[in-house]
């Protein structure tokens, strides 16, 4: 998969006919992205099920591409995998979910916890304290 910078350079040097034929812009599926992420973090589906207390069939449907994950599921995955803010934003983008927006109170709490490497439990406590719904 090409980086954003590589794609920008590629766009700069393409004429319109080459652009129409280019296959560098195909989207990666969220299931492929999640499976690759789990492999990088040396996690398995059972780890997601146990550590996030997820329903087994729901988790496998997401990882097999039969179901689209919710935004909260992706945020919970970011905490499980200890992703950075940038990695979390990419995960949300690939999943076709809104990225975290710091002017939104819920999103700001998530961003704060990601930046300070807090756990999902600590995030849920913070969300409760500020009157927002938790991730569960």
Structural features, described:
This protein has 136 residues and is mostly helical. The protein has a single domain (28-129), classed as 434 Repressor (Amino-terminal Domain) (Orthogonal Bundle), CATH 1.10.260. 61% of the residues lie in helices and 0% in strands. The chain contains nine helices and no strands.
How would you describe this structure in keywords?
136 residues, mainly alpha, 434 Repressor (Amino-terminal Domain), 9 helices
Break the fold down into its secondary structure elements and pairings.
Blueprint: H1 4-13, H2 16-21, H3 30-40, H4 45-51, H5 56-63, H6 71-80, H7 85-94, H8 105-115, H9 120-129
Helix pairs in contact: 4-5, 6-7, 8-9
Order of helices and strands: HHHHHHHHH
Report the C-alpha radius of gyration, rounded: 17 Å
Structural class: mainly alpha
Q: Mind telling me which CATH architecture this is?
A: Orthogonal Bundle
Give the CATH topology.
434 Repressor (Amino-terminal Domain)
Report the end-to-end length measured between terminal Cα atoms.
32 Å
Helix content: 55-70%
Query: How does the overall form come out from the CA principal axes?
Result: globular
CATH class: Mainly Alpha
- What characterizes the major β-sheet? none
Number of strands: 0
Number of helices: 9
Q: How much of the polypeptide forms β-strand, as a percent range?
A: under 5%
The low-confidence runs, each spanning 5 or more residues with pLDDT under 50, are none
Overall structural domain count: 1
């Amino acid at each position: 998969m090409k980086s954003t910078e590589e794609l920008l350079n590629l766009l700069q040097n393409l004429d319109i006919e080459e652009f129409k034929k280019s296959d560098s812009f195909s989207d990666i599926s969220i299931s492929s992205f999640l499976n690759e992420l789990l492999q990088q973090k040396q996690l398995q589906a059972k780890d997601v099920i146990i550590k996030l207390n997820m329903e087994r069939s729901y988790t496998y449907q997401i990882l097999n591409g039969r179901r689209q994950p919710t935004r909260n599921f992706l945020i919970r995955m970011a905490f499980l995998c200890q992703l950075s803010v940038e990695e979390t934003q990419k995960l949300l983008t690939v999943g076709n979910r809104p990225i975290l927006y710091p002017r939104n109170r819920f999103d700001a709490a998530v961003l704060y916890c990601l930046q300070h490497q807090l756990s999902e439990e600590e995030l849920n406590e913070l969300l409760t304290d500020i009157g927002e719904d938790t991730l569960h």
